[in-house]
Amino acid sequence: MNADIGGIGIRVSLYISLLVTILSSFAEHFHQEKTAVRDIGTAQLTSMLSITFALLRSYTALSFWQVMVAVMSLDITSATVQMALSQKDTLSSRWWVVLNTTSQLLVHASIGVVFGNTFPISSAQQDPC
């Protein structure tokens, strides 16, 4: 397994940051003090973009399962970033919402590029239905 895509450090960091985001989002509902959800979301955006660039850089040398691990990692991180958008202080920051939306579009377009170039449909396999 390519360590930049699905190494143990990458996976552990994804799971820990997901857990911290869930706990921070949950805790904010019970008290009025600000939590660090936006900061955690920013760290998640950075993680999501770094995995995206690592995937785009090396997808031609990856196996099917490595591509799937990278895409699942991006999906987990994307869901975590969306959780951060459920908080009022995060939604009130327009620059963060714009950055989040732009990053999400970039990530999902990158997934389409990777799947389109890794698993092309040849003309012999197309079914004209």
Walk me through what this model shows.
- With 129 residues, the protein is mostly helical.
- It has one domain (3-114).
- It has six helices and no strands.
- It has helices at residues 3-6, 8-28, 37-58, 64-84, 88-91, 94-118.
- Helix 3 (37-58) runs parallel beside helix 6.
Q: Find the count of extended strands (DSSP E, 2+ residues).
A: 0
The percent of residues in helical segments reads over 70%
The parts where pLDDT drops under 50 for at least 5 residues are none
Strand count, sense and barrel status of the largest sheet are: none
Which of globular, elongated, flat, extended, rod-shaped describes the shape? Answer: elongated
Q: Strand fraction band?
A: under 5%
Number of helices: 6
Keywords: Membrane, Transmembrane, Transmembrane helix
Transmembrane segments: 12-30, 42-59
Annotate the secondary structure layout.
Blueprint: H1 3-6, H2 8-28, H3 37-58, H4 64-84, H5 88-91, H6 94-118
